[in-house]
């Protein structure tokens, strides 16, 4: 449903468009999300909440990361921030205006703010986060017309699989 408004923000269009694999072998949204799920599972195996992220440029993987707050003892070590840092280092620039970030869980306010500040072109996300999501569930920082940049968002890519990884992680701890 390309072109539908998202959460009433008329300045931002939600793009739920088909994914594809191009002739050069670049990864599509589903393949990138599968890589993010692997990173999420690895984070869960290390005791961190299993969220994974991948940075893409023209369909090519620049970086992958999983949550590392527990491992690094760093409250900002969310998968999205780690993958933004790695992509910036790879490209030699903080401006990621032609980069797509793929993440298994809807970003929080901190991570959404970082996506805006990095001028990320597009976000692909799996599961929504009704408790603290800042890309439509609780807030929508990526489409706030008061900010200097808006990020195109694709939601629901392998959403059930992404949610299952989180559910299994928390079920083991209860």
Report on the structure:
By secondary structure, the protein is α/β, with parallel strands linked by helices. 33% of the residues lie in helices and 22% in strands. It is built from 5 helices and 7 strands, in the order ββαββααβαββα. It has helices spanning 29-45, 69-72, 79-91, 109-117, 159-172; strands spanning 4-6, 9-14, 52-57, 60-66, 99-105, 122-127, 152-154. It has a 5-stranded mixed beta sheet. It has a two-stranded antiparallel ribbon with strand order 1-2. Helix 1 (29-45) runs parallel beside helix 5. It starts with a strand and ends with a helix. The model is unreliable at 1-21 (pLDDT under 50).
Brief overview:
With 174 residues, this protein is α/β, with parallel strands linked by helices.
Key terms for this structure?
174 residues; alpha/beta; five-stranded mixed β-sheet; two-stranded antiparallel sheet; 22% strand; globular; disordered N terminus
- The proportion of residues in beta strands is 15-25%
Quaternary state of this entry equals single chain
Mean pLDDT: 89
Shape: globular
Tally of extended strands?
Answer: 7
What is the straight-line distance between the termini?
38 Å
Written as H for each helix and E for each strand, in order along the chain, the element string is EEHEEHHEHEEH
Low-confidence stretches: 1-21
Radius of gyration: 15 Å
Structural class based on helices, strands and sheet pairing: alpha/beta
Task: Give the strand order of the largest sheet, numbering strands 1, 2, ... along the chain.
Answer: 4-3-5-6-7
Give me the number of helical elements.
5
